[in-house]
């Protein structure tokens, strides 16, 4: 749904620049926690996954930008024994997770978002998740998915 201010599966900043705009948000309280869930095709282990969590930047935000410590502190409950790289684009959160053992399906991590003052409480409709890369020791794994949940 290009134009809804959330970068979603199949959209890029090239083909849907509206969804990559950084909109105005005056952060408020309380923090709202959402889970990012991951799944891979049956019979395929995955050791590396990169996900893009799009969010309506005029309804919710994360303090800081890029890989600032304030951003990385908001991504919690990560898989154990993993290398994690986090980058907040201020309209989406890009998270790479890599580990020597397979990444289990289910909750991949949680994110604490601030609501924007004067806007409705963030809901699942304010988020989308896209798997940008899914790999195992043999190369790319097709069919990996992610979603944002409560």
Explain how this protein is built.
A hairpin with a 3-residue loop joins β5 and β6. The protein is an all-beta fold and 150 residues long. It is built from one helix and ten strands, in the order βββαβββββββ. The model has no long low-confidence stretch (mean pLDDT 96). The protein has one domain: Immunoglobulin-like (Sandwich). Strands 1, 3, 4, 7 and 10 form a five-stranded antiparallel sheet that branches. The protein has a five-stranded antiparallel sheet with strand order 5-6-2-8-9, with no helix packed on it.
Q: What labels describe this entry?
A:
150 residues; Immunoglobulin-like; five-stranded antiparallel sheet; 3% helix; 40% strand
Helical fraction equals under 10%
| Total tally of structural domains | 1
Class by alpha and beta content: mainly beta
How would you characterize the largest beta sheet? 5 strands, antiparallel
Give the SSE layout:
Blueprint: E1 32-39, E2 48-55, E3 60-61, H1 69-72, E4 75-76, E5 83-88, E6 92-98, E7 106-115, E8 127-136, E9 139-140, E10 145-149
Antiparallel strand pairs: 1-7, 1-10, 2-6, 2-8, 3-7, 4-7, 5-6, 8-9
Short synopsis of the structure:
Helix content is 3%, strand content 40%. By secondary structure, the chain is mainly β.
